[in-house]
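Study this protein:
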Amino acid sequence: MKTKLSTFQFELPEKLIAKYPTDVRDESRLMVVHKETGKIEHRVFKDVIEYFDEEDTMIFNNTRVFPARLFGKKEKTGAQIEVFLLRELNKDSRLWDVLVDPARKIRVGNKLFFADPANPEEDLLVAEVVDNTTSRGRTIRFFFEGTDDEYHAILRKLGHTPLPKYIDREPEEIDIERYQTVYASKIGAVAAPTAGLHFSKTLMKKLEIKGVNLPKVTLHVGLGTFREIEVEDLSKHKMEAEYFSIPGDAAKIVNKSIEGKRKICSVGTTSMRAIESAVSATGFLKEAEGWTNKFIYHPFEFSIANSMLTNFHLPKSSLVIMVAAFAGHDLIMDAYQEAIKQKYRFFSYGDAMLII
């Protein structure tokens, strides 16, 4: 039963989808779910520090969202085309996997022109479509003769913050800062690791002073994480690969906590996917780098983390399925009903859940 997609369906009132972040990062709400007893507490996010002690460990994903939405015009017709950058395939030849909209207008060989926002008459970049990958997917090559730094500076200038579709509004000034964690450093994600959005610099410093270990790993979040699952049998679902990296120093910190039987918290589903993709034969975290398409669903033996911080997710998403695998299907479905009853805010800019 717990490997069936339909068991993760629930009715979510649209008004509970958070369109904007809270005024202060660490003052969102926090639901604390106790795995062993089923007890549920309602707290404020900054209270999370009360649940961790010296030598405990919280694992953060330090990926940084890049401005992945570009708007260009098709040659000859001048039709506006949205281009969503997914993954840079080859830095030397400036090849990218992208999504285009409207896709029916974009064919191999078409050229796309990207104008300076401050001077629409001047094109800063030109790209050519070189391959069809999916119905909306294309591979494009940018033409640019300057340095790599100049090229990436232009991409940042042209790009817009890639807010998820369900937020249902255009990006604003506030999103430049708030759709990014305070510790983001490794550029490469097209979506933020949202559990980390609740941490303020002050809260991070308080955790550090308390003696909690705060190692960073990297998983560049792609759109595949949010893609709709289309099969009832979860064993038949295939995740898209995402780049991850576990530095040696982070692995050492985590392994020391494993040996000391300390609390180890994965901050977000993306951190969980990264660490569970780098487990040694003896059940420890190992230094690693590569691509992971790991899909975590019941029954799954978690090797590293014994607690988890996460937001409230979409029905039937790979994210809620992972959370249920970690804490138990019935407990999480009950907790979600409680969240709806108590009017918690859902999704990227929503509230958080701590599972301990």
Q: What stands out?
A: The first strand starts at residue 29 and ends at 33.
